[in-house]
Amino acid sequence: SQQGEEDPQALSIQEGENATMNCSYKTSINNLQWYRQNSGRGLVHLILIRSNEREKHSGRLRVTLDTSKKSSSLLITASRAADTASYFCATDAGQGAQKLVFGQGTRLTINP
Amino acid sequence: GAGVSQSPRYKVAKRGQDVALRCDPISGHVSLFWYQQALGQGPEFLTYFQNEAQLDKSGLPSDRFFAERPEGSVSTLKIQRTQQEDSAVYLCASSAWTPGAAGELFFGEGSRLTVL
């Protein structure tokens, strides 16, 4: 079963614009992670935000976490054609659980 | 190798055949996970190993699915009597042990299984 739900399911923007993807989850968590997947490839870890953090940056990525609303957002600034991929949020189940539960993903297309 | 290695990358099986998918995790990684990903969907958890111990197999869809990691390194996912609904990409991931929480997962490229 899926823990997280990403919104939107698909997003198409012009190169240079910012892309925002949202994720909602259901249960309490220790951390939330974002992953990227290029077509036909494995997932690549982008960023991890802990439950006691509200915002985190990594290069052109900005992640926010609102535990009261059980939601997170991923912002990619100044998008590039190479950012075209599917993006997934993943949450653990809290209580020391090691496994991650993934959402359905947002398919992002950057048009040159 | 430097990353997680999976083989075969592509497997075509006739319905009813048995298949075995191999995962070679990053050296020293304690945790190993198998996920199933249907086309256009997110990865679905299948099973988790800590070293050689299978601590969670709650995601295995049926008793036709079996996973092992006998020496705490290489893992094999076996699917017996394959059905068409088993067609998917099977992803393996490994991670270092992170007490109290899930850590960063390192994924292989996946094994794409097509059952005819």
Give a written overview of the molecule.
The complex is a heterodimer of chains A (112) and B (116). Chain A contains no helices and 11 strands. Chain A has 112 residues and is mostly beta strands. In chain A, strands 2, 4, 5, 9, 10 and 11 form a 6-stranded mixed β-sheet that branches. A 5-stranded antiparallel β-sheet of chain A has the order 1-3-8-7-6, with no helix packed on it. Chain A is globular and about 45 Å long. In chain A, 37% of the residues are buried. With 116 residues, chain B is mainly β. Chain B is 0% helix and 47% strand. Chain B has strands at 5-7, 10-13, 19-24, 31-37, 44-50, 53-56, 65-68, 75-79, 88-95, 106-107, 111-115. In chain B, strands 2, 4, 5, 6, 9, 10 and 11 form a 7-stranded mixed β-sheet that branches. Chain B is globular. The termini of chain B are far apart.
In brief:
Chain A has strands spanning 5-7, 10-14, 19-24, 31-37, 43-50, 55-58, 61-66, 71-76, 85-91, 101-102, 106-111. Chain A is mostly beta strands.
What is the element layout, followed by pairings?
The complex is a heterodimer of chains A (112) and B (116).
Chain A: E1 5-7, E2 10-14, E3 19-24, E4 31-37, E5 43-50, E6 55-58, E7 61-66, E8 71-76, E9 85-91, E10 101-102, E11 106-111
Parallel strand pairs in A: 2-11
Antiparallel strand pairs in A: 1-3, 3-8, 4-5, 4-9, 6-7, 7-8, 9-10, 9-11
Chain B: E1 5-7, E2 10-13, E3 19-24, E4 31-37, E5 44-50, E6 53-56, E7 65-68, E8 75-79, E9 88-95, E10 106-107, E11 111-115
Parallel strand pairs in B: 2-11
Antiparallel strand pairs in B: 1-3, 3-8, 4-5, 4-9, 5-6, 7-8, 9-10, 9-11
From N to C, what is the helix and strand string of chain B? EEEEEEEEEEE
Beta-strand fraction estimate of chain B: over 45%
Number of helices of chain B: 0
Number of strands of chain A: 11
Oligomer classification? heterodimer
The coarse silhouette of chain A is: globular
Low-confidence stretches of chain A: none
Overall helicity of chain B: under 10%
Structural class label of chain A = mainly beta
